[in-house]
Amino acid sequence: MRRWFLIVVFCAAALSIQADIIHLASGGKVEAEILEETDDYILVRMYPNILAKIDIERVERIERKPTRWQIYSEKSQKIAPYDAEAHWKLAKWCKKQGLYREYKTEVELTLSLKPDHKEALKAYEELRAERERRIKRAEKRAAVKKTSSKKTSTPKQVKSASQSKLAQIRKLIGEFFSTPEEDYKKREQILEKLSKFEPLSRSDVLSFKREIFRKAKRGPKATYKGGRGQLNSKLYPGTYYICIPRVKMRKYPLVIGLHGGGQGVGDGRTALQKWAFATRKGAICVFPTVIKKEATAWNKEREERYVMALIEEMKRTFPIDTNRIYLVGHSMGGYGTWSIGTHYADVFAGLAPCAGGIFVMMGQGGSVVGLARGTVVNLKNTPIYFYHGADDPRVPPTSDRKAAEVLAELKKKYGPYEFVYKEYNGIGHGFPPTGLRPIIEWLFKRKRNPYPKMVIWEPSRPYKTLFWWVKNRGGISQIVAKIDRAKNEITIDGPSSGFSLYLNDKLVDLSKPIRVVINGKEAFNDYATYSVAALLDSIADKRDPQQFFYAKIDF
Fold first, then answer.
1. Residue 113 contacts residue 90 (beta carbons within 8 Å)
2. Is 291 helix (H, G, I), strand (E, B) or coil?
3. Bridge pairing between strands 454-457 and 479-484
4. Which of 169, 41, 157 has its CA nearest to residue 535?
5. Domain that includes residue 333, residue range
6. Sheet bearing 479-484, strands edge to edge
7. Is residue 254 part of a domain?
8. By mean pLDDT, which of 47-51, 195-199, 282-286, 466-470 is the weakest?
9. Same structural domain for residues 345 and 307?
């Protein structure tokens, strides 16, 4: 009984101030001041100064209202000149609302206009006495801290950068974003220049976060009419069909559906007809048409970069849940899903390449001896559901069978590789007996983990230099990287140089030394370097507030 009583008291107190109203999925609501919003929770302050975290999954919607400070500003502007009583009245309101700094200001204003104001004089003496008590408490804490301090291992102390140095960094950030994304070599050169300013302090690096995100998110929003649109890009002027759910959501899953076809044929409409039902599950669904209709078009660099640019435009236009982006496709679209989805496995929450395949290397006698580079091995953290008709007359199931075989081997060697492969008799190049709905339902139960503790990467695109938290500077053919957070240790199997590890506090404890073991030998045991280059590179790569890094270790 006592617990419920406290909750009622807190809620009643919260209702006494003007604040945002948070409507909960359970039907209840909380009126409080929002201090912080993240992808996991909302931090709120309820009167009088009670802090609470609300799980974001419990939030249905937020009804915005003016904050106490906005109301205070409005009230103070309405006070007539030399009106001491009005200032005293506002002072009492500020105290009731917990605005103690503003309360002190209004008390002083009251006394400046009416020095003999008895109530204000009493309040001023109380404020002065409280200030003296705070000073004595602070002095006491400082004395205790000084006598009890012991020598401990601490990170390298890096002084704050000079204004001149920060200005040079800011200039390079501007130069980076003024360089077209296609000129990735020049962008890499700018990142190298930024690295020369290191080491930097943590606060100096993170001071650029908001500015970098703002610049990274600049660009045109989607323009569409009647369910059809065209990407706002001179390099990739592809068209697409779009389906938007009727229900309003705080964040939307995004499904990209790739159509089949070939030389001179194929259209996003065919993918829409297959996959648009996902809109009923609250997803925004986009179905691009290849820019040039040719065989295996989705496997070409142009179409790959077109699809990724389309995803970025959707993120600029809608509140996309970046941990719930899915790529699906049938036939030629299945080939494209295998290709694009594996090259950019760190973007997608799940893949569904249907009746497609991976380019394969054939041996004598027509047996498959290998799969295209940079595909299956990259799926360590990306679930995939694929199927094929055993009697498919257009696309033989050979490469899908080989892919399932390789995935099973990788799972046995490295631990979980989440995949489902199904093969059906009698469907030819068509759909499973149960249709595509079970595939979407399976995908929608998966969410991307933006910070996996194990990464396996085989690069295959020169412009794709960052994969999860591993940066390829030209030295990676294949890498297996694993973090043991309990030990603050990273183990590497693969190259000994030519790469960087991009880090943040969710991956390791940056306040402690990090041990890196490469191929069984200790290669590093020190503190990571706080890096604007890592921050800029990771934000520009995905424009994703749920996946960015601000420290690094170079090899």
1. no
2. coil
3. antiparallel
4. 169
5. 231-444
6. 454-457, 479-484, 489-493, 514-518, 521-526
7. yes
8. 47-51
9. yes
- Tell me how far apart the alpha carbons of residues 223 and 310 are, in angstroms, rounded to a whole number: 12
Average pLDDT over residues 310-334: 96
Regarding whether 374 and 281 lie in a shared domain, the answer is: yes
Q: Among 41-45, 249-253, 303-307, 537-541, which is the least confidently predicted range?
A: 41-45
**Minimal CA–CA distance to 380: which of 478, 461, 517?**
478
How far is Cα 221 from Cα 202, in angstroms, rounded to an integer? 33
Which of helix, strand or coil describes residue 256? Answer: strand
Q: Judge whether residue 6 has pLDDT over 60.
A: no
Euclidean distance between CA atoms 97 and 219, whole angstroms:
41
420 within domain boundaries:
yes
Strands 470-472 and 419-424: unpaired
- Residues 418 and 302 occupy one common structural domain: yes
Instruction: Give me the pLDDT at residue 25, please.
Output: 81
Mean pLDDT score of the chain: 87
pLDDT tens digits for 110-148?
887 888 888 988 988 888 888 778 777 767 766 664 544
Token reading at 194: 């930024």
Given 444, 463, 482, the domain boundary residue is 444
**Could you give the CA distance from residue 128 to residue 124 in angstroms, rounded to a whole number?**
6
Tokens of 385: 């559901």
Q: Please indicate, yes or no, whether residues 271 and 313 belong to a single structural domain of this protein.
A: yes
**Could you write out the DSSP letters of every residue in 490-516?**
EEEES-SSSEEEEE-TTTS-TTS-EEE
Judge whether 150 lies within some domain: no
Could you tell me if 364 and 327 are in contact, meaning their C-beta atoms sit under 8 angstroms apart?
A: no
> Which domain CATH number covers 17?
2.30.30.100
Domain tally, the chain: 4
Q: Which residues pair with 455 in a beta bridge?
A: 481
The model's pLDDT over 251-281, given as tens digits with 9 standing for 90+, comes to: 999 999 999 987 878 899 999 999 999 999 9
Q: Decide: helix, strand or coil at residue 329.
A: strand
pLDDT over 80 (residue 420):
yes
Distances (CA, A) of 287 to 142, 262, 406: 63, 16, 30
Q: What is the largest CA-CA distance in the chain?
A: 105
**Domain membership flag for residue 424:** yes
Residue type, 361: M
Helix H or strand E segment including 163? helix 163-178
373 three-state secondary structure: coil
State the CATH number of the domain containing residue 276: 3.40.50.1820
Reference 476, options 335, 377, 352; nearest CA is: 377
Tokens standing for residue 68: 């106490």
Torsion, Cα 405 407 409 413, to 10 degrees, reads: 180
Q: What is the pLDDT of residue 402?
A: 94
Dihedral of CA 268/274/275/279: which sign? positive
Listed in order, strand segments (DSSP E) in 403-513 are: 419-424, 454-457, 466-467, 470-472, 479-484, 489-493, 499-503
